[in-house]
Amino acid sequence: MKVIVAGFPKTGTKSMHIALRELGYDVYDFVENFWYLGKDWNKILTEGGSVDDFKRMYEDVDAGVDAPIFFFWKEIHEAFPNSKIILTTRDEDSWFRSYRKQIEEINQNTMLRLLFVYSPLGRKFETFLLRLAQVVYATSWIKANTFSMKHSVNELVMRKLYRQHNADVTQNAPKDKLLVYNLKEGWEPLCKFLDKPVPDKQFPYANIGGKLFEELMQKHPVMQRMVKEAFVIISLLIGFGAFGLYKFFRLGPNLKHAILKLDPISKLTYFFSTIIP
């Protein structure tokens, strides 16, 4: 690990992901951490971990951004003491407005909820996000039912966590390894800190408007796999359901009446016996 982006989510971490890739770094964001290191992170988030764990996990990774890396910046730096630390910052009020808008987007994203139900990979991703919420943000997503997972935002707690995190990094990170950085400063301070040439292009800005998961489902291969899995499973369920109804309506009236009087488990047993004799 060469670069640890220790900034809180919604301080420009998605833009930093793109910028670091532009500068030649292999970058792990929260989706990459789930996909490549999900088993390790689930263990760390539930049981704990060690410096040796982080050394093994990130020995071939250049840079890390967003959750859960920002929360464990100190432990990762202990594993890679020569790595540089970037604390991305923004005005607290604008940060919280952006954070709250991101949560609203997640709560209102019907497709994301479908992935969490119908995609096997999506269900694993949901578990990962739930553990992140509980450990990293000291909060939880409220799952009202199978299809509805809501994340309520405690403004007082989130603002306190934001200030505490920024203070922890600025006070405890080695001064010669730390850059406190606002994306409005552009390429120059970032490239100077990383000893990289300044790209001949505008600094990238991503996740504007809080449409993170909508964009990920369109572009990220891991999220696209979840979408394909959900599409296949939903299509199969619709097909089985249509075939079962077709078989049901072809039955005589007495048999249909008898089936309707069955308990739900018996109905399902009969339904599947007609599809898979």
From TrEMBL:
<keyword id="KW-0472">Membrane</keyword>
<protein>
    <recommendedName>
        <fullName>Sulfotransferase family protein</fullName>
    </recommendedName>
</protein>
<feature type="transmembrane region" description="Helical">
    <location>
        <begin position="230"/>
        <end position="249"/>
    </location>
</feature>
<dbReference type="Pfam" id="PF17784">
    <property type="entry name" value="Sulfotransfer_4"/>
</dbReference>
<keyword id="KW-1133">Transmembrane helix</keyword>
<dbReference type="InterPro" id="IPR027417">
    <property type="entry name" value="P-loop_NTPase"/>
</dbReference>
<keyword id="KW-0812">Transmembrane</keyword>
<dbReference type="InterPro" id="IPR040632">
    <property type="entry name" value="Sulfotransfer_4"/>
</dbReference>
